[in-house]
Design a protein that fits this description.
Length: 692
């Protein structure tokens, strides 16, 4: 294994043409922040960089639609998104932007270096030109019929329906979104990056990581390599971007796909200047032997970070390539895709106006779309906050510290009455911490947080088994030892949860009033013990319960803003309202009342052989246990279902699916793509409860 001296971490640069929403947070920023915080607790030297992507057509479209200059748009969203990240606890070392002169110089230096090495290729290409507007049309300024699938509102570079890429001149019946007129084809000179010449290098690079990259990343990258890499345009005719630094190149800019990823390097340069050591950036970007680079992105950026950016780094020479690109899939919202144009979105800063950041971080981590798309619902957010953060983690910390204040004068009591069970409890801290750590190292953040919460549950069990409320009068030394151990667990929990819940971890440290010698390190959680007699800080509730009325208020705002038709303005084809199935024939109340809907808890779940979507489950419906077969295997794994409360139709006649008897049916909604989403109780309930 390489002996890394440092870890470089980047998150995908968000476009500065809109506010970051919860899907963005779950995709590339929260997992990176968790990883960075954990590595720092391990003592690793980490540099975490990000910034705004401020060029390209998307910014220009927003500016034209809002009647503002591109600079006004990027200034507004850069500041807004930076504040949103800060409020969410995303701890960048530096948050830069690609409109700064330093970035322009960096991108132009790379262009000129590759040009001087004769790597770039000049080509005369045919482009669409709007004669009425008098400009060449960037890809997103034109729509037409996809040449592959026939979709009638395809953009000029990629079809949103079939995801195929093509040349804009291949569009059938193209229309300019600037003037609404058909464009003509004209010739223009552009520069290309010969990506295909790096295919063998990239194949070796990708396969060298076959054992550690996520399967969704490998499959997408291998698909591109199998199809064969081709030249990619590196310049375009446009009025907004980094100017091409060659003579006779007026009106041409460096393509945003090429220059945006260099924002990671210009961010490092700006950071180095800020700390007063301008050459320090090279330590991170020009020492591939000792620097491990992790690039956190969403799945739509996989090809750029696994093929194109590495090819650029290889072409430039002696630069640090990504060691891992743990891309996440997409997060949906209440069963639908996030959509700015359809107003179906919850922005991070708006959400944090109502709720604190740690419950949001907790829920997003628990449902993080690590291997497939997942769904954020307000009901689950409320349930996880109330049933897990409040009832498990917060409950243990509060009852422990309140007991110490009430019975031991707010100080750590003596450990003289410890038993073997106490020693075993303390010894288990290391195993719990390593379970969390192992999952984080493998970029399995959901598993990591579940392991941390399981440790919190074990702490509650220890407290209940020790019964200090009873022994404090019958055996005071025994009660003192139990609270001594529980306080040590509070200290360990504060560290193990810090990567996920940084604001709460800070409050735990304050409530413990940690002495200067108390290490803030991963190993310290299991090795250090707060001494008897140490005076604790004031105890307070770590989390508050979220009420139904708060959730309903946010949901009302979401419902009232969502579902509008897309405006027929530049860059946004109309008629993209989510399609819903027609309402079925009406039934009477008496007909509906015959359905017996019950809450059920999944006890067991397994896949049915030879079926890719059927799962067999054993569920508890209160009065009995039932076997149910459901076609949700493509959306849920068996492990995800065990312990989950669902809604079932309990009085259906049994039927057989794939030869397995099903004694009921569960309820599920479907997303736009047909993916099933389980209908679950919004709050705490019990198996057998009637749903009506």
């Amino acid at each position: 294994m390489p002996s890394w001296k440092r870890i470089l971490v980047t998150s995908a640069l968000p476009y500065a043409n809109g506010a970051v929403h919860l899907g963005h947070l779950a995709g590339a920023y929260l997992p990176a922040d968790i990883f960075v915080r954990y590595q720092r607790l391990r003592g690793m030297d980490v540099l975490y960089l990000c910034g705004s992507d401020e060029h390209g057509v998307s910014v220009l479209i927003s500016a034209m639609r809002e009647g503002k200059s591109p600079q006004e748009i990027i200034d507004y969203y850069h500041d807004r998104n930076r504040r949103a990240f800060e409020r969410a606890g995303i701890g960048f070392d530096h948050y830069s932007r690609t409109s700064i002169p330093l970035h322009h110089r960096t991108a132009q230096e790379w262009f000129l270096d590759l040009h001087a090495k004769n790597i770039l290729r000049k080509r005369i290409e045919r482009q669409l030109f709007d004669e009425k507007a008098g400009i060449f049309l960037p890809d997103r300024f034109v729509v037409g019929t996809c040449p592959h699938c026939g979709y009638e509102r395809a953009y000029g570079d990629q079809c949103e329906n079939c995801s195929r890429y093509y040349d804009q001149t291949d569009l059938i019946r193209p229309t300019s979104l600037l003037s609404g007129t058909p464009p003509v084809v004209r010739e223009a000179e552009q520069w290309y990056f010969p990506l295909g010449e790096f295919q063998e290098n990239l194949e070796r690079y990708v396969e060298s990581h076959a054992g550690d990259w996520k399967e969704n990343v490998l499959q997408q990258v291998r698909g591109w390599l199998k199809a064969g890499l081709t030249d990619r345009p590196i310049t375009r005719d446009m009025m907004w971007g980094v100017p091409v630094p060659l003579p006779n190149s007026e009106g041409k800019v460096i393509y945003v796909w090429f220059e945006a990823v260099l924002g990671y390097i210009s961010a490092a340069k700006e950071w180095a200047e800020r700390i007063g050591d301008p050459e320090r950036w090279k330590t991170w970007w020009c020492d591939p032997v000792h620097t491990r680079y992790i690039a956190f992105i969403g799945k739509d950026n996989i090809v750029f970070h696994c093929l194109m950016f590495p090819a650029m780094l290889i072409a430039r020479g002696r630069h640090t390539l990504p060691d891992n690109v743990p891309a996440n899939e997409f997060l949906n919202l209440q069963g639908q895709k996030f959509s700015k144009s359809l107003n179906w979105s919850i922005e991070v800063d708006t959400f944090l106006d109502t709720f604190p950041p740690d419950p949001l971080r907790y829920t997003l981590t628990m449902i993080m779309p690590e291997t497939r798309d997942s769904d954020f619902t307000l009901q689950e957010f409320q349930a996880r906050n109330n049933n897990e953060l409040v009832a498990v983690l917060g409950n243990f910390i509060n009852r422990t510290l309140q007991f110490a204040h009430r019975s031991f004068g707010g100080a750590v009591p003596s450990a003289e009455g410890m038993t073997d069970a106490d020693e075993s409890f303390l010894a288990g801290f290391r195993e719990s911490g390593e379970a969390v750590a192992t999952a984080i190292e493998r970029f399995r953040f959901r598993d990591a947080l579940q392991n941390a919460m399981q440790f919190a549950r074990s702490c509650n069990k220890y407290f209940n088994d020790a019964e200090p409320w009873r022994t404090v009068t019958t055996d005071p030394s025994r009660a003192a030892a139990a609270i001594y151990c529980a306080i040590q667990a509070v200290y360990a929990l504060g560290i193990y949860f810090e990567p996920f819940l940084p604001f709460s971890a800070e409050r735990v440290r304050a409530m413990l009033n940690l002495p200067p010698e108390a290490p803030r390190s991963w190993d310290g959680a299991s090795q250090y013990r707060l001494p008897a007699g140490h005076q604790l800080g004031a105890a307070e509730l770590l989390f508050r319960k979220i009420e139904d009325a708060e959730i309903e208020e946010v949901f009302d705002r979401l419902r009232s803003s969502g579902g509008d038709e897309r405006p027929t303005t530049i860059g946004l084809p109309a008629d993209t309202k989510p399609k819903t199935q027609p309402i079925k024939e009406r039934i009477t109340y008496e007909q509906f009342s015959k359905a017996d809907l019950r809450v059920a808890r999944v006890l067991e779940a397994e896949r049915i052989p030879k079926s890719d979507k059927l799962l067999r489950m054993i569920v508890d419906i209160g009065s009995e246990k039932r076997q149910i077969v459901a076609g949700i295997g493509k959306a849920y794994t068996p492990d995800e279902l065990v312990g989950k409360e669902i809604i079932v139709v309990a009085n259906l006649e049994p039927t057989r699916l794939f030869g397995v008897e099903s004694q009921g049916m569960l309820l599920a909604a479907t997303t736009d793509g047909g993916t099933p989403v389980l209908v679950t109780p919004a709050g705490p309930t019990a198996p057998g409860n009637i749903v009506k």
